[in-house]
Amino acid sequence: MINKIAPSIESAVADIRDGSTVLVGGFGNAGMPFALIDALIAQGAKDLVIVSNNAGNADHGLAALLKTGRVRKVVCSFPRQVDSWVFDSLYHAGKIELELVPQGNLAERMRAAGAGIGAFFCPTGVGTELAGDRETREINGRMYVLEYPIRGDVALIKAHRADRWGNLVYRKTARNFGPIMAMAAATTIVEVDEVVELGALDPENIVTPGIYVQRVVPMTA
Amino acid sequence: MINKIAPSIESAVADIRDGSTVLVGGFGNAGMPFALIDALIAQGAKDLVIVSNNAGNADHGLAALLKTGRVRKVVCSFPRQVDSWVFDSLYHAGKIELELVPQGNLAERMRAAGAGIGAFFCPTGVGTELAGDRETREINGRMYVLEYPIRGDVALIKAHRADRWGNLVYRKTARNFGPIMAMAAATTIVEVDEVVELGALDPENIVTPGIYVQRVVPMTA
Amino acid sequence: MQKRTREEMAARVARDIPDGSYVNLGIGLPTLVANFLPTDREIVLHSENGILGMGPAPVRGAEDYDLTNASKKPVTALAGAAFFHQADSFAMMRGGHLDICVLGAFQVSEKGDLANWHTGAPDAIPAVGGAMDLAIGAKKTFVMMEHLTKDGQSKLVALCSYPLTGRSCVARVYTDLAVVDIDAEGFSVIEVIPELDFAELVRLSGVALRDARPA
Amino acid sequence: MQKRTREEMAARVARDIPDGSYVNLGIGLPTLVANFLPTDREIVLHSENGILGMGPAPVRGAEDYDLTNASKKPVTALAGAAFFHQADSFAMMRGGHLDICVLGAFQVSEKGDLANWHTGAPDAIPAVGGAMDLAIGAKKTFVMMEHLTKDGQSKLVALCSYPLTGRSCVARVYTDLAVVDIDAEGFSVIEVIPELDFAELVRLSGVALRDARPA
Q1: How many beta carbons lie within 10 A of that of residue C204, not counting itself?
Q2: pLDDT at B118
Q3: How far is CA B56 from CA B81, C42, D122, D132, in A?
Q4: Taking 80 as the threshold, does the pLDDT of residue D48 lie above it?
Q5: Residue C121: which pLDDT band, with cuts at 50, 70 and 90?
Q6: Are the C-beta atoms of D180 and D187 separated by less than 8 Å?
Q7: Which of A75, B165, B185, D33 could make an SS bond with B155 (beta carbons 3.0 to 4.6 A apart)?
Q8: How far is CA B162 from CA A10, A182, B202, B216, in A?
Q9: What average pLDDT score do residues C64-93 get?
Q10: Is C68 on the interface with A (CB under 8 A)?
């Protein structure tokens, strides 16, 4: 029988290893898996590479993880925010590495990892410093930059409802990076508002099929 | 006001020009836009390139269009079926060109067209004759073939329900190529079982947002 | 000389957005445009964090922090709205499906190059978000910005000195002094505010401008 | 010598599919495997036309032609099923998310090359469908085929003479005579049917085979 509901949040994150690349869902706080991040902080893995759209807000969630000093590098599109003081001070102190990636490239590169694409010619960033020294090519009169997949060892994401097969639906714009991070990571761990019976989610409306999900942690437990 | 509901099926297909590349939805008969194909036959455009998973079944739908002799070329993954006699005889008579594309490449190449990707390194078909003389590259120890987008001038697809903004939901596996063909075509024309009020489709469950749809033809009219 | 206010600039941009358009309004100044969209037009707003058919801010007390815009502020969803994930959202932008995006800018060059993401200051933390995707993705990219910096430098330039967001991507610039189209031959002024004559606009701008105002 | 029937082959394959696996059963012979999946295991079937959690054929009269499998035959959806479009469906396959796919074959080479889509006959209409995507996409690709062609040629070969479907992609072959693993050193036999001795299997196969049967 397939039962992806984790016995506890501690067990769900227990095997995350030092040096892992961890994809963390959310656009700001919407879709941020706060409980899983807290569990990762308690678990203690270090030397992490975090891939997320932002680099933490205020002192909770991703910001709290950064504050532990266990994050070596952040790959994100928009670190600088009014309340990103934790990241800002680590960055200015030279204590964290930043790889800045345009938001659409971040999304498409994770989708590519999930879909088995080896690399793709991308229209975004051509002629900008974020294209770095990457290969470029003109195709049909337009310039493109070659971009590579971003894979995660682990994805920590938040969804609204799940069943025991790991099928997921999200809530409004909190969906954001969840579905593509689930595709891109070897192990996807999801915190959900609610677990429902198998069959309760309409097969027409499932956003992330369970094949992409390894562990589900209900917040109602 | 946005109202994509076409006044008639004839008007919906009226501007399809000779020589167009037409993406036609469906996997066999599931998702096949029979009414739109009949309207295209009546409209008379010729010298067409058809992109579809199959090359027509029995004597109706895509097979009926092929029978008119107005299709110059078929781009598909699986032409040969027990009831594909129309295509078979045109092919053996040298009256139609075939470009055979693995099904996943067909899907991903249309998705790439819709998503602005210039080309992508694809794992499927490496070392086979369907890779032809395309560029190959080893990335992280794996070989890939470079594949290019497939764009349509027009897509003819079938969905289950639509609203006047062109938002679409599909029915079961009849969804198949609809959503990606809608992304890949300059003009997407959809036949639907039913038109519902704006707001009647749950925003969480819309599969094809209206931005990809130009004209909706209700079958209930 | 009465420069256009931010609201007047927003209203001027809004006037040029046709009925039925799919539009992304960038963070900052362009957000104001939403307040001035003509009520007799149905315009579908896209927000890159995953919604088409974005509505105005909710009434106080009705905020839902799972329904936010690109600035992470609560919004609403109109009838006809759709939610989608980030790869789908950026496919819409990068695939050329949006009719118009409106962006703020530090500088716009006569080739249509846009600089709006980074001042290049060595101690500044860079942040790009969806700016580079938006700049090159929409069918038309409009820029909305003050014509001059606080110390009087023109933001219309021959060549951007700030790091680029996108190359040859800006179609039109709306400033507090003028409306300027960009084509293969460079800047072409289609509108100047009253009380400002064309020669003075050229002097303030410090770049070559063609006078393309309707007679 | 009593060769394995098609049903016995299907049952043998089914035995090797673990509880909780995501599996695609190719058209033709592999379809039979579904009938022999152990009832105490929960195995999620993928069909490339856009469903995970595919169930058996519906009872007569309950056919829904919007719910079909890759062979375009009506099927059902289990509780827990999900529908998706073609790019999403093939992302699952090509992205390495399926645990196992089972395919038919014309030939399999000792390097694990697979030929199953085209005989190469000049008048044949070629058709490939999802075969090339499946062959290279799953974590493990199993082949299920008769060991010999109708005229007694071995389908295990040193080098495929038919056009390839995928290179170095087959992990294991189930035939009516044996079960054969493929690794860097070639074919390695892990099971032979009763009444057939290993030397005779080698003779029939006409290729190098290692005997890797448990003692």
Answers
A1: 17
A2: 98
A3: 9, 40, 22, 22
A4: yes
A5: confident
A6: yes
A7: B185
A8: 45, 29, 11, 7
A9: 97
A10: yes
Of the candidates C144, C45, C132, the one whose C-alpha atom is nearest the C-alpha of residue C90 is C132
D70-89 per-position pLDDT tens digit: 999 999 999 999 999 999 99
Residue of B nearest to A104 (CA): B115
Residues C90 and C48: beta-carbon distance below 8 Å: yes
Read off the pLDDT band of C215 (50, 70, 90).
Answer: confident
Show the CA angle centred on residue C132, arms to residues C100 and A78, nearest 5°: 120
CA dist A216 and A165 (Å) reads: 9
Terminal Cα-to-Cα distance of chain D (whole angstroms): 22
Q: Is A85 on the interface with C (CB under 8 A)?
A: no
Q: Residues of A numbered 96-155 whose beta carbons fall under 8 angstroms of chain C's beta carbons: which are they?
A: 98, 100-108, 110-111, 122-130, 143
DSSP letter at B27 equals B
Q: What is the DSSP letter of C36?
A: G
Optimal mutation site among C65, C71, C72, C86, interface A, most CBs of chain A within 10 A: C86
Spatial separation of the C-alpha atoms in residues C23 and D214, rounded to whole Å: 66
Report CB contact under 8 Å: A211, D81.
no
CA C205 to CA C152: how far, in whole Å? Answer: 9
Quick one: D81 exposed, middle or buried, by C-beta within 10 A (0-12, 13-18, 19+)? buried
| The pLDDT of residue A220 is above 80 | no
CA distances A199 to A90, A175, A208, D53, D82, Å, are: 46, 21, 14, 11, 10
- Smallest Cβ–Cβ distance between C133 and the set A80, A100, A104 belongs to A104
Nearest CA in chain A to D88: A115
The architecture in CATH of the region C6-211 reads 3-Layer(aba) Sandwich (3.40)
Nearest one of A26, B183, A103, B163 to C44, comparing CA atoms: B163
Q: Using CA of residue C190, residue C194, residue C200, residue C201, what is the dihedral sign? A: negative
B79 to chain D: nearest residue by CA?
A: D127
Residue B186 · residue B153 · CB < 8 Å: yes
Task: Give B136's strand partners.
Answer: B145
H-assigned helices in chain A:
9-13, 34-43, 62-67, 85-92, 103-115, 178-184
The reported pLDDT for the residue numbered C120 is: 83
Q: Indicate the SS3 state at residue B214.
A: coil
* Alpha carbon distance, N-terminus to C-terminus of chain A: 21
Q: Is the pLDDT assigned to residue A98 strictly greater than 80?
A: yes
Report the pLDDT averaged over residues C80-91: 98
Residues with Cβ within 8 Å of residue A41, at least 6 apart in sequence: A64, A65, A68, A70
Tell if the CB–CB gap between C91 and B206 is shorter than 8 Å: no
Residues of B in contact with D164 (CB under 8 A): 127-129
The answer to whether residues A31 and A175 touch, using CB atoms and an 8 Å cutoff, is yes
pLDDT, tens digit, for every residue of D138-179?
999 999 999 999 999 999 999 999 999 999 999 999 999 999
Q: Which of B115, B116, B167 sits opposite C82 (nearest CB)?
A: B167
Which of the residues in chain B have pLDDT under 50? none
Q: Please say whether the beta carbons of B21 and B152 come within 8 A.
A: yes
Q: Supply the residues of C annotated as catalytic.
A: 48
Which residues are CB-neighbours of A218 under 8 A, at least 6 positions away?
A: A5, A162, A191, A192, A193, A194, A195
Structure tokens at B217: 């033809």
Class of residue D71 by CB neighbours under 10 A (exposed 0-12, middle 13-18, buried 19+): middle
Q: How much is the CA Rg of chain A, to the nearest whole Å? A: 18
Task: Return the CATH number of B9-115+150-218, one of 3.30.390.30, 1.10.3300.10, 3.40.1080.10, 1.10.10.10.
Answer: 3.40.1080.10
